[in-house]
Amino acid sequence: MSIKGKAYIAGIYEHPTRLAKDISLAQIHAQVAKGALEDAGLTKDDVDGYFCAGDAPGLGPMSMVEYMGLRPRHVDSTDTGGSSYVLHVGHAAQAIAAGKCKVALITLAGRPRAEGMATGTVPRSRGGTPTPDEPFEFPYGPTVVNMYAMCAMRHMHEFGTTSEQLAWIKVAASHHAQHNPHALLRDVVTVEEVVNSPMISDPLHRLDCCVITDGGGAIVVVAPEIAAKLKRPKVKLLGAGEFIKTQMSGKVDLTYSGARVSGAAAFAEAGVKPADIKYASIYDSFTITVLMQLEDLGFCEKGKGGAFVADGNLIAGTGKLPFNTDGGGLCSNHPGNRGGLTKVLEAVRQLRGEAHPAVQVKNCDLAVAHGTGGSLGLRHGSATVILGRE
Amino acid sequence: MAERKLPAPAISQETQAYWDAAAKGKLLVRKCTSCGQVHHYPRTICPFCFSDKTEWIEASGKGTIYSYSVMRRAPVPYAMAYVTLAEGPRMVTNIVDCDFDKLKCEQAVKLVFKPTDGGPPLPMFTPA
User: Fold this and answer.
1) DSSP 8-state code for residue A360
2) Contact (Cβ atoms closer than 8 angstroms) between residue A339 and residue A106
3) What is the mean pLDDT of the segment spanning B65-92?
4) How far is it, in rounded angstroms, from Cα B79 to Cα B33?
5) Shortest CB distance from B80 goes to which of A136, A142, A200?
6) How far apart are CA A85 and CA A80, in angstroms?
7) Burial environment of residue A158 by CB neighbours within 10 A (0 to 12, 13 to 18, 19 or more)
8) Which residues of B touch A378 (CB under 8 A)?
9) 3-state SS assignment for residue B17
10) Is A373:A84 a contact under the CB 8 Å cutoff?
11) Strand locations in A223-343 (E)
12) Which residues fall within 8 angstroms of residue B22, CB to CB, at 6 or more apart?
């Protein structure tokens, strides 16, 4: 059974805050849920499916279901890090197609900035019973940034990718962020500014890294008969794919990501090709994340990502593949260190024709949203959705 | 330069022998006698063929750097790496006792051990 055409994204909401000192984590979940339901023209009592990941306080979905006063007959709290919410869109469509729910609510919230969390540069133990990998990794000091940096280092070694090429990804994001009043970083930057920013972990500079922000977002996925009664532009789910890429028991290959599998599945289900895509939301925890995912999704050959992203090719209006037109995680928002949900939001805005006029892609009728969660260099979850305007 | 303090690994029943060997200056890897493949990190059931016929073998301590990154923002900078062992598997490790600015992918390295805070020493590598 395919999910193609079986579900629609009817409501979206992105919390405007980037620093949530005076708002609780649960409160943000409820605020974004309310925002997305109002955007759809639905109410809390219409919700019969609820999806959340590890950022939600409590055991799986239970505390949030209670806090928001929901009565779902279908729940899913699959956690694949920042890609969870892209995966949830696919899972929500499956549940709707199987008749398990008709109005699925997905929420994300986080406050790493308010909590002063050292997100990228300090090794973190998960606590509790150690995972089997932990004793063979944690004592060596893996951080978020150095594990992504090792992917960049190997990519440079094998394919000759340069820091200047990676910098173009940040430059493109900054061109888009200048138009987003909620973006954390709104200044346009140059390639020189990126490569001359302080080295964090070779070869990634400070401006190769995403922002750390508080906030969140929500998505409402509905059955076709619900979508037909609503007033918002219709965004249809055409395909979805997911994959967990690991170290492969000692055969790790840092030059590609799980997007190779999740992307191929999503494109096959949708019956479209990368060349058909008008807008791409690509997970951008670091510049290298974007470059590898573009290759793995099939927008260019493996190893040619550097040339593909250079010279403004990702900038809306001038480039061939406009990406992350809200400024993405590199400049606008990476709520709770989990950037997958906001990737879906900007893809929906583009398909509705509701992106900022300066970055709105003309006749945008087909978009991809892709997420990577966990650690690109250790183990990560990939999720891809293909969305179309009806 | 200040010494970098290494946390002790959390030892499980499954990998006690690995850490006992490390305390004696030996690096063990796990080999499947059914499919013949060597994997890392070590498991009792082979992650390639799911046979439970696996055994410890001692690694030669020779390898090459698959990739690395120098964590400049740490209080004491260190070189995170994947090293490809001569026996086949790639392992997460550190490159130590060297000029970080001269490291390269595919560079030959050899095994050394570094003490941890109250636990067995960690297998690491230094340019050969």
Assistant:
1) P
2) no
3) 97
4) 34
5) A142
6) 9
7) middle
8) 92
9) helix
10) yes
11) 235-245, 279-282
12) B28, B113, B120, B121, B122, B123
With an 8 Å Cβ cutoff, are B89 and A251 in contact? yes
Q: How far is CA B57 from CA A136, A250, B19, B37, in A?
A: 17, 15, 13, 12
CA distance A340 to A384: 10
Of all residues in chain B, the one with the smallest CA distance to A137 is B92
Is the C-alpha dihedral spanning A386, A308, A81, A179 positive or negative? negative
Mean pLDDT per 10-residue interval, chain A, length 390 residues: 95 97 97 98 98 96 98 98 98 98 98 87 78 95 97 98 98 98 98 98 98 98 98 97 97 98 98 98 98 98 98 97 98 97 98 98 98 97 97
The beta strands (E) that lie in chain A are given as: 8-14, 49-51, 74-76, 103-110, 199-201, 204-205, 215-222, 235-245, 279-282, 366-375, 379-389
Q: What is the pLDDT of residues A201-253, one digit of tens each?
A: 999 999 999 999 999 999 999 999 999 999 999 999 999 999 999 999 999 99
Altogether, the residues listed in chain A come to a count of: 390
CA atoms of A299 and A133, how far apart (whole Å): 33
At which residue do the structure tokens 């949900």 appear?
A: A341
User: Distance (Å) from the C-alpha of residue B82 to the closest C-alpha of chain A?
Assistant: 8
- CA distance, residue B7 to nearest chain A CA (Å): 5
d(CA B73, CA A29): 33
Q: Are A146 and B95 in contact (CB under 8 A)?
A: no
Torsion on CA atoms A154, B101, B26, A246, rounded to nearest 10: -20
d(CA A347, CA A11): 12
The pLDDT, as a whole number, for residue A126 is 67
Q: Do A139 and B8 touch (CB under 8 A)?
A: yes
Show residues of chain B in contact with A141, CB under 8 Å: 71, 74, 78, 80, 94
Could you give the ipTM of this predicted complex?
0.97
Read off the pTM. Answer: 0.97
> What is the residue whose two structure tokens read 């805070």?
B117
